């Protein structure tokens, strides 16, 4: 029987130490990256874009109609109805903007609305709209995660 003077390979202790170091480094990287904040920032960026899209469509409608605001917009902040919704009862119907895709193809929907059902109404978009006495329009994203998103023109 032959005995080998030196055996090659790693001991169990060495492997466990390396795995432990990798786990610690991975935990530090995950904490530093903070994926929850990254997703929240991405969703809020999409919300900001959507608010401006709705406001721009209303603005274009007003330009084409001698400054008249769409008749369905009220003085109280109310959720906007989704495009082609079954019912817009209790919501602001902005179908005048989406008819024939004149001003906008579809009313944008909040990123957390369809997947999680956070919209207050099943036919809603998660965005609210209102007008002041001077016909200034305010569109708001009440589901924003980091900061309030509201634009007035």
Model description:
- The protein has helices spanning 12-33, 35-64, 95-98, 113-116; strands at 78-81, 124-131, 137-141, 149-152.
- The chain is an alpha+beta fold and 153 residues long.
- It has one domain (33-152).
- A hairpin with a 5-residue loop joins strand 2 (124-131) and strand 3 (137-141).
- The chain is rod-shaped and about 100 Å long.
- The mean pLDDT is 90.
* % residues in beta strands: 5-15%
Structural class: alpha+beta
* Helical percentage: 25-40%
- The helix count comes to 4
Summary, kept brief:
This protein has helices at 12-33, 35-64, 95-98, 113-116, and strands spanning 78-81, 124-131, 137-141, 149-152. The chain is α+β, with helices and mostly antiparallel strands. It has one domain.
């Amino acid at each position: 029987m032959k005995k080998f003077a030196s055996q090659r390979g790693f001991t169990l202790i060495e492997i466990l130490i390396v795995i432990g170091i990798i786990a610690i480094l991975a935990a530090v990287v995950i904490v530093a990256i903070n994926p929850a904040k990254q997703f929240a920032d991405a969703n809020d960026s999409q919300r900001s874009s959507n608010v401006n899209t709705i406001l721009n469509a209303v603005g274009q409608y007003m330009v084409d109609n001698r400054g008249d605001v769409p008749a369905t917009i009220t003085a109280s902040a109310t959720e906007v109805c989704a495009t082609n919704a079954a019912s817009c009862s209790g919501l602001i119907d902005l179908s005048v903007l989406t008819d024939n895709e004149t001003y906008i193809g579809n009313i944008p929907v909040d990123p957390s609305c369809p997947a999680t059902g956070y919209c207050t109404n099943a036919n809603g978009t998660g965005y609210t709209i209102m007008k002041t006495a001077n016909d200034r329009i305010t569109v708001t994203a009440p589901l924003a995660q980091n900061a309030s998103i509201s634009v007035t023109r």
